[in-house]
Amino acid sequence: EAAGFGGLRRYNAGVEPYDPIIGITELSDDYVIPTPPISYGIFNGIYTGEPDTLPNGNIVFSRAEDVNQDYGLFVTDANGNFEIPLYDKVGTTELRARVIRPRPLPPIIADTVTQIPSLLPPLAGGPYDVDGTFVFDALNVYFNAPVDVDIVNAPAVGSAEIIRFFIDHQRTSPGSFPALDWPILLEEVAVNPDGSVQSQNAPANVPLFEQLRGLDDTVPVTTSGAWTNEEYIDGAAHVAGMNFGRPGTTVTCVGCHAGHTLIPVPADPEDARWTNLAPGASISVSSTRDPQYNVSVIDRRVMLGELWRYWTSAPNQTQNQWIELTFPVPVTIRTIRLYNPRFEADCSLQV
User: Fold this and answer.
1) Exposure on the CB side of residue 7, measured as CA atoms within 13 A
2) Which domains does the chain have, with CATH numbers?
């Protein structure tokens, strides 16, 4: 269900895009009121929500013909190919249908931490570790997702000097008013040259976030060539999501950028020391068809994006062409990997 829209979407684990099923699942300019005051976010079309899965794989859901929200119960398949009315009384709203059927008991997984958390958050002035501490273990803040995983790139290797740990728990704010509860800096820890960093004293059971800082005391940026012709700044080495750990545990991750928790942590910590560093390099080329597409050499995308965004040499320049990547700091290279342009009808160039 797409909150704020009025449609059903199917999501898969990971970073794959959702599949629209039925109802309003996308932004559009087909507003119910197209003239000022415009009904931004309220669109023409059928509204659907609150699905439940039937034993045969079909879906029972609530459906309204328009924004008047007269919902009835309907049935469709997993792809929204049909709509069968189930119960729709005029002037009433039928919502939250649930299938009553036998269900297997979920597995019982014993909790490895039996300590009961505090009922209230820490006081503004601390102490913050009233529930104990855990170990925060970032194996490599420069670690990138695999090729074609559609998240932003990690900060460039060597761009981080320290990492800052903040606690950001509720104190005086009655809701989403961040200025009332400003984040509290807990500690700063130096980032090792291989990107690893640890905090042995992270307070347990409280919301935390982290932020990298460079030599100039600024936050390193993250970049992507996914949406524009040129690589652009689309974020920073700032983990905006709230992390937490249970008392006495070790929390492990790689990367330090938006989406990094989707990257699988290597089973062997030694493997975490090696990653695709190309997105953090500066590019020089012998010639180019169009300079704005040079970034596609290092954008970590092969099957994603438009075909015309590949770098190619200038017209009639075929001999002795080269690309040079320059990194901010000396690096050790274990593997150099080149990807051909994907083969499609409009692109048959293969190397």
Assistant:
1) 22
2) 7-87 (no CATH), 133-273 (2.60.40)
